[in-house]
Amino acid sequence: MRWDRFFEDLEDQLAAEWEAERAALDSEAERLRVSRLHLRTRMVGFAQAAEATLAIDLVDGSLLEAAVTSVGADWIAARPARAPSALAEPSIVLVPLTAIRAVGAPHGELLRSAREPTSESRLAERVTFGFALRDLARRRAGVTLGAAAGRALTGTIDRVGADHLDLALHDTDSPRRSAAVSGFRILPFSAVAWVRVSATTGVVTP
Predict the structure, then answer these.
(1) pLDDT digits over 176-201, tens only?
(2) Cβ-Cβ contacts under 8 Å for 75 (sequence gap 6 or more)
(3) Is residue 156 within 8 Å of 140, Cβ to Cβ?
(4) What is the 3-state secondary structure (H, E, C) of 123-158?
(5) What is the bridge-based pairing of β-strands 75-80 and 183-188?
(6) Could you tell me which residues come within 8 angstroms of residue 151 by beta carbon, excluding any fewer than 6 positions away?
(7) What's the pLDDT tens digit per position in 84-108?
(8) Class of residue 51 by CB neighbours under 10 A (exposed 0-12, middle 13-18, buried 19+)
(9) Closest CA to 70 of 129, 156, 144, 139
(10) 127-160 core/surface letters (b: 16 or more CB in 10 A; e: else)
(11) Measuring CA to CA, which residue among 202, 147, 150, 198 is closest to residue 169?
(12) Which of 17, 29, 43, 119 sits a CA distance of 20 to 30 A from 187?
């Protein structure tokens, strides 16, 4: 009986060692997987989840409380949790990933965003921020644009280059007409913190 007990103890010890080794390997594999995650992947996870409201700190010092609705190659589209004013119409905010400084999220959503996302459209990975801006320019949509310097500009995007845009300044309440335009600005993409457009505009979404 003592030998039986001896071998049982050995088996238990060996099983415990195997379990510990497997847990260590699983933990190391998980750390390796997480080390390869990009911010865009986390944003895809948020977009595919239950549309939790995130608190997104932006480079211009503003805080965007919104749910991520879609993710492009280098930008996100988000639906603000509340309109800028009680009378404002629903809007969509486009944010380049480089303008994001921090993201606050419920712990469960934070962990969920670190998992491998479900399959997404290959097209989404190819729709760049510049492509989305060109779509707005084509539609002649009125926009409010947050500059990284910390001020908001309103108007219409006239044209979009490889790394910059031309903005005609005017009130968003009025269409872009020569008499309404008060000036023009050339803005590098790196100077753009966010672009807000009416949700009814039908901006391209990946």
Answers:
(1) 888 888 899 999 999 999 999 987 66
(2) 94, 95, 96, 97, 128, 129, 132
(3) yes
(4) CCCCCCHHHHHHHHHHHCCEEEEEECCCCEEEEEEE
(5) unpaired
(6) 60
(7) 554 456 789 999 999 999 999 998 8
(8) middle
(9) 129
(10) bbbbbbbbbbbeeebbbbbbbbeeeebbbbbeeb
(11) 147
(12) 43
Structure tokens at 105: 């999220």
**167 burial type by CB count under 10 A (0-12 exposed, 13-18 middle, 19+ buried):** buried
* Pair 136, 198: CB distance under 8 Å: no
For residue 38, the one-letter residue type is: H
Q: Which of 66, 41, 26 is nearest to 118 (CA)?
A: 41
- Tell me the two tokens of residue 132: 């989305």
**Nearest Cα to Cα of residue 133 among 188, 203, 80:** 203
Q: Round to whole Å and give the CA distance between 152 and 175.
A: 18
Query: Would you state the structure tokens that stand for residue 36, as one six-digit string?
Result: 């390869």
Rounded to whole angstroms, the Cα distance separating 170 from 181 reads 5
Identify residue 169 by its one-letter amino acid code.
Answer: L
| Helix H or strand E encompassing 30 | helix 2-35
